[in-house]
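Fold it.
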Amino acid sequence: MCILASTPTRLYEFSGGPTFEALFGQLGANPSFQELPGSPNMHSELHLFTARARRERQFAWLTGAGIYTGKMSAGKGSRGKGKADVVKDKDLKPYPCVNCGEDLPQCQCDPADRGTGEPPRSIGLTEFHFMLLYNDQLQVVNQLSSKKVFDEPFRMTRMKGDPRGLLYDPGQGLHWLYTDRFLFRLNIVEEDRNMWELHLDKEQYEEALVFCKNSAQKDAVLTKQATKCFEDKKYDMAATFYAKTTMSFEEITLKFVSQDEPEALRMYLSNKLDNISEHDDTQRTLLCTWLVEIYMDNI
């Protein structure tokens, strides 16, 4: 059992069990906590989100210093010690400019337009984004890039009330925004559509392939991965990835020939042969002939 509890300036982690009585009965006078700058009187929120395809829970803590976020691995912890070790990948993300979405130190907006970096009124958490509720807008920020990807200015005649908070219903998988008078359901569609590009920009190739939606995106990832391996002189790995791309056959073979890498060339030709249709007799004959020459040269 793992419990997170927050105040405006502290985040407590508890683990143990199997009951609440047993967990809290094991606590000492000074349980461990993470403390961040802020005022004890400020508004603070702690939200959890569990993706249906994953066991890990994400959390986001609204603090005076920024968004403190991380992951909790279900079912793991230091049982019986009153101290949790299940939180990982912790990070503190500053609040972005309300105008352009950039971090305030890098923001180029006019000071009158970019805000002061004050915490939003409420925060929402999805699988890939943070939702920040301000008095005059709803801002959506990508967790991986920390960039604003969407904002919705509020028109009071449309909102019908003063924005108060964001809520998530884990049972139905629905996100809600409420004002002092009405409740609105937020419609989230294909929020992972650009995740492959963001992972690719960070050279996280395996993660990028997971989010590819079509063969063109997959080809772009494999091409960049192969090129990176080639530049790092990892020629055998480059040959494996190049063979899965649609890059020009002549261009790739010349790369390995120019580097005098016959083994990498052999691997590329062999992998390419496995991916060629059985009905493409001409291409298969050329590849087989070249491979035989390489094997004979080795002998």
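Confidence is low (pLDDT under 50) at residues 76-84.
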